[in-house]
Amino acid sequence: MARIIRIVIGLVCLAGLGVLLWYATLPPPLVVQGEVSADRVDISPRVSGRIAKLNADVGDTVKKGAVIAELESPQLLAAVHATEAALIVAKADLDRVNSTRPEVIAARKAEVEAAQADVVLYQTDQARQAKLVVTGAAPQARVDQSNRNLESALRSREAAQANLDLAIAGASKEERALAAAKVEQAMATLNQQQTDVKELTISAPIDGQVTTRVAELGENFSAGAPLFSMIDIGHPWFTFNLREDLLKGLKVGDTFSVKVPALKDATIQVKVTVINAQGQYATWRATRATGDFDLRTFEVRAVPTTPVEALRPGMSAIASWPGTEH
Fold this sequence. Notes:
326 residues; alpha+beta; Elongation Factor Tu (Ef-tu), domain 3; CATH 2.40.50.100; six-stranded antiparallel β-sheet; four-stranded antiparallel β-sheet; 14 strands; 25% strand; rod-shaped
C-alpha cells in the first residue's frame, strides 16, 4: 500500500511539474502603451485686426459660442462707411434714370404745342399763297418759300414730340440695367464688409478648454494667424499603435480594458472606433532575409464606454495584449 501511495504521489508531482512547465512556456501577455487624445481646434481670425479685448486664457473652460477675443480694424470700418456712401449714390442714380422731373415733361409739352402752332400758321400761309399764285397775285417763289416753311415746321413738331416721348419714357433699358447693377454691386460689397466686421468678434467653436493663447492685447494679427488652441475635453479617446500581427481579428465595436496610471491605475472599459493603417514610414521591417515579412503598423482608436471626467489628453494608457506565438 505504501508503494502505491508513493507511486500516486510521484504521478501527482509529475503532473504538477508538467502544468508548471506548460504555464512557463506560454507567451506572456504583451503590454502596449497608448495615450489619451482629444480633438484640437486652432482658432484664427478670418480678417486682419488688432487685439482689443481678451476674454479667455490658458486653462479656461469655455462654452461654444462664447466670445473669447475681440479685434478692431479702423480701416475696415472706414471702408464700410465709404461703401455705404457709394450705395446711396448708386440708389440715387437709379432713381434718376427711372424717373423724369415733371418740369422737364411740361417743358417738352410746351415745345410740342409751339411747334404745332407753327405748323398751323404755315399751313394757313401755304393755302393762301396757293390761291394767290393761281390768280397771279403772288409769285411762284413766294409759294415755294411757304412750302419750305411748312415742311420745316412739320419736322420741328416731330422733333419736339420725340423729345416729349423721350422725357416721358426716361432712360434706356441699358442705362437702367447699368444703374441697377451698380446698386447690386455696392450692396454686395457692403454685405461682405459687414460680414468681415462681424468676424472681428472671435467666438469659441466648441465646448472645450483653452490650451494655448498666442494673442496679446494690442498685437496685430493677419487673417489665418492662430490666436488660441482648444481641446474638446468632453470627448477624449485612446490611441494605440500596433503591428498588424497583434490585431488578431480585432474589429470596430470590440471592447477591451485599459489602465491609466495618472488615475491610480483605474481600469477603464473602451470600445474600438477606428482601425487605420499608418503610412509606409511605420512599417516594421523583417530582420532576416528569408522567413519573415514586413508588417504594417495600425492605429487603433477607442473611446470609453462610460464618461470619465478626469481623463486629459496626454495621459498614458496601458493595455495587456495577447502576445504573438513563436
